[in-house]
Amino acid sequence: MRLANVDGRAVLVTEEGAGADVATASDGRFGPDPQAVLADWAAFTEWAATAAPAADVRFTTEQLGPPVPRPPQVFAIGINYREHADEAGYPPDSAPVTFTKFPTCLTGPDAVVALPTDTVDWEVELVVVIGREARAVTREAAWDHVAGLTIGQDLSERTAQLEGGRPQFSLAKSHEGFGPTGPYLVTPDEVPDPDDLAISCRLGDESLQSSRTSRMIYDVPELLVRLSAVCALLPGDLIFTGTPSGIGNARTPKRFLRAGDVLVSEIEGLGSIRTRFRD
Ligand code: ZN
Description:
The protein has 8 helices and 19 strands. By secondary structure, it is α+β, with helices and mostly antiparallel strands. It folds into 2 domains: 61 residues, no CATH class; 205 residues, Fumarylacetoacetase-like, C-terminal domain (Fumarylacetoacetate hydrolase, domain 2), CATH 3.90.850.10. Strands 1, 2, 3, 4, 5, 6, 7, 8, 11, 12, 14 and 17 form a 12-stranded mixed sheet that branches. It is globular. The N and C termini lie far apart (37 Å). Zinc ion binds next to strand 6. The site of zinc ion has 8 residues, from strand 6.
């Protein structure tokens, strides 16, 4: 199943650019708010599997908002790919490095983002959407608590992130528009292997990052185990699972996003998102 946020309404995607409005098709039982659908995910997926509603909505990518617009919590993981740990100069830690992106930074899959400084960097990431409350889950049960997957960019303002005696990950990664996500929430059964997906981003024809999610140090089940041992994970929460190598801050010379840049981020089976930048 692919679920889109079209102008703030949950839409079951049937083909590219078309789908069924969830509130209309379910006679108001689910939706229209895409976030509300996640609060009743098990019942919703059961309904969606049998209802198979006909497409009654056509949409363009400009109409798409973040598939999960108001998550109760957003977890983000740093240093979760070996090559990225090397380039960032951090030895992998004994626990996942965890911070938050404040939820107001979330935006859709075809966003225009204002650059607050000239040191804004890219980080393509697999984003996990929680579908069922998780407390102290086991590895074996972890995927059962996942509603779906989407593509995310953990845009990062490196100056504020790294200056001072202690890193300021959360704030420096939460400027307006710094959390592009989408294009859809895709259920794990739609992808070939949810633990091993090609992940990349590029500017024009130039590849910036290219890896596979199987190269994570802490894979998706392990992240759910570690996080849910501390916090309850709630339906509609997001987990940004970390970025592979190839960030601009680790290049010689360093390289950052500029007004006019068009960043395309892609994950196998999930589609792609496009982020445009302006001053
Ligand atoms: Zn990141």
